[in-house]
Amino acid sequence: MDFGVRMSRAEEARTRAGTYELLALGLGLPSAGLAEAVARTDAPLFFPLLDAKGLIPEHHRLFVGPGDLPAPPYESVYREGRRVMGETTIEVGRQYEEAGYTLHPSFKELPDHVVAELAFMALLVEEEAGAWEVEDASAALARLQKQGRFLRDHLLRWLPAFCERLLASTENPFYRRLAAMLGEFVASITHEINNPLAAVFGSLDLLALRVAAGSTEAGWVGLAQRAAERIRDIVAHMRHITRLERAEPVAGITMLDLRKSGEPEGREPVKPDDPPGA
User: Is 72 helix (H, G, I), strand (E, B) or coil?
Assistant: First the structure.
């Protein structure tokens, strides 16, 4: 694989990961880490003069309480009729464990909190970027498949309603712009996944022409092509969800850390104020 193409795919994935990280930071408890992250990106164009400390009262009113939450940040509330800690919560936690992650002990929220789900996606995309860098297309496809499934089965099933509720519940410029940014990202995410997927299909088609029919290598190419087709099917279904499935709105960290399960010795868990790739 050409070095430029390889790095282009890795950089594109890291851009997606960075967007997930910034959204998670923005929806977590406002902190100096949020202001610093915004200052390091193009986000100041969207969030000028960010005063993280000044956002705390509005953050608590919207997402923490006391009292009814104008914009509940939990998937289960939108999918299980106002119910917190439902079957959805358990299933999301299971998805983290199957991917090799668990919630960091310092994060005191439920697994289906919006910050947790966005941070999990950031980690999956970072893994994809690492796979592209070492020319491991099979591993990159596996990460893309995990991303597609989690988007299809979880994030895309409730984030549109969450964005609508957030926009309807606040006049704060930061949270209104954040909700708009999140909504635009959700609407474009299938396209963002299709970009590297199209490149994978092209590379696999070329590779299939260069290996002998019936060889072991041809079998590997066939497996990769079928995996890519499964991802394409997942993405097609994601488009359907984005267009048609809108949950009814309900009344009412800094970046979350996910710690790798069974980490090798010497690898420190990500600290609460650090992005996963730090």
Answer: coil
- Residues 6+ away with beta carbon under 8 Å from 260: 100, 101, 267, 269
CA distance 253 to 271: 10
**In whole angstroms, what separates CA 156 from the centre of its chain?**
10
CB of 156 within 8 A of CB of 241? yes
Contact 29/59 with Cβ under 8 angstroms?
Answer: yes
d(CA 147, CA 144): 5
List pLDDT tens digits, range 181-233: 888 887 777 665 555 555 565 566 666 667 777 777 777 666 666 665 655 55
Give the DSSP letter of residue 64.
I
- Domains of the chain in start order, with CATH, are 3-187+247-260 (1.10.3480.10)
Tokens of 143: 């990460």
